[in-house]
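Notes to self after the Tuesday call (sharing in case useful).
The group wants a holo model before anyone commits to mutagenesis around the pocket. I volunteered. Ligand is 4'-deoxy-4'-aminopyridoxal-5'-phosphate. Logging inputs and output together so the record is complete.
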Amino acid sequence: MRDFSNSKRAFAEADKYMPGGVNSPVRAFKNVGGDPLFIAKGKGAYIEDIDHNKYIDYVLSWGPLILGHADDKVVADLQDATTRGTSYGAPTELETELAEKIQAIVPSLEEMRMVSSGTEATMSAIRLARGVTKRDKIVKFIGNYHGHSDSLLVDAGSGMATFDINTSPGVPNALAYDTLTVAYNDVEGVKSLFKEHGKEIACVIVEPIAGNMGVIPGTQEFLQTLRDETTKSGSLLIFDEVMSGFRAAYHGAQSLYHIKPDLTTLGKVVGGGLPVGVFGGRRDLMENITPAGKIYHAGTLSGNPLAMTGGLSTLNQLSEDLYTKMTANTKRLMAGIKQAADDHGVPMTVHSVGTMWSYFFNAGPVNNFDDVKASDTAYFAKFFKQLLQQGIYTAPSQFETNFMSSKHTDVEIDKTIQAFNNAFDAVQKQ
Ligand code: PMP
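Result:
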C-alpha cells in the first residue's frame, strides 16, 4: 500500500485556510472518499506527490498539458520571458503572435480576445451574444459545463454533476430563468424549444464534444440542428471548445463536424498550463467589443506576456502528425481498458475523441446526462482508489474527462492497461 501521510497532513493544514481545503471543488476527492494528493512536481507523463509516490498522469491539469509536464521548450521559453518582466498592462507583440497562430489553426476566429480563464471566455461570449441580438434568453445543455458565471451555472456538468447540484445558491432567479436547458443530443427538444422561444433566444452555447460528464460526442444531426435553428431565428451559435479545442482534433471539434459557429471559446491547451482563455469568431460580431464597440470587456492580466508565451510555446509544437499519433495511442489505451473490463465481467462503456477519453461503469449506450447518471459511481470510487495504488492518476469523478499527452508512449500505455487489470482484480477481491 502506498503511503499518503504527507498529503493527508498537507490537506488538514490547507483546510484551515481554504473552503474544503482546495481552490477548485473536484480536486478535493470528496465524491470518491479519501484525501486529495498534494503534488510536488511533474515531468512528461508523470507526476509525483509529496510522499514521493509517482503516477502516470491522465488529468494533465484537467487538459492543458498536451505536451506533458514541464516540457523542456515551454520551460525554457517561460524562463526567458520572465527575465523581461511578468506583466505590463500594455500591448505586446506576443498577443498578436498568439492570435495569428490560433487563427491559423481555427480559422473561424476572425477576431478574438484573450482572457485568463475558460469561465471568463464563455461569460464574455454570452454578454456579446446578448448585446448584439438584444435578447436575454440563452440555451445550454444538461451536463455541459461552461465555467462558473451566473447564467451558466444551471444544470451544469463537472463539479455540479459530481456533487449533484442543479444550480448554485447566489445565482439570481432572474438569470437562471433566462437560461433554458435541454438534454444533450436531443434534436426534437431543440426544435420544440426554438418553436416556442426562437425569437427570444440570444444564443445557444454547447460543448460540441461534451467533456464535463465524461466524454460524449455530439451527433452530427444534433449540432447541425443547432446551426440551422440559430440561423433561422437570428440567434448565435457558440461552440465552447475550452476543452475540445486542440484536444478533440488539431483544428478543434468544429473541424470534425464541418460546422462553423458564430463564436468559439477556447482555454486550457491554448495557455499550455498558464491561465489563458479566448473568445472569438465573426469579425462583425467581435467589433462590438470595447473599445471598437460598446459591449464591455476588460482584464488587468488579459494577454499577460507569460501566459501568451506558455500558449505560443505549446501551440508552436503541435502538428497534424502529433494528433494522429496521440489519437492512435488513445484508441489503443481504450481498447486495452475495455478488454480488461470484459475479462473481469464488468459492464463498461469507453468513449474517446482525439486525446480526450473516459470510461463509464455502465453497459451503455451513453449519449446524455441521464445515461451518465446511471453509471455505477460506487464502483467508480473503489476503482479510482485502486488505480492510485497502481500508480495511475485519473480524474477523480465519473463525470470528468481524462487526457493523453505527447509524452505518453507505448511504455506508459502498456503499464496503464496492466494497472487497470490489477485494479479490477483488487476491487473484485474486496
Ligand atoms: N468550458 C468548458 C467546456 C470547460 O471544460 C471548462 C473547464 N473545465 C470551462 C469552460 C471553464 O474553464 P475554467 O475552469 O478555466 O474557468
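Two things stood out.
The first strand starts at residue 39 and ends at 43.
The CA atoms of residues 137 and 178 lie 5 Å apart.
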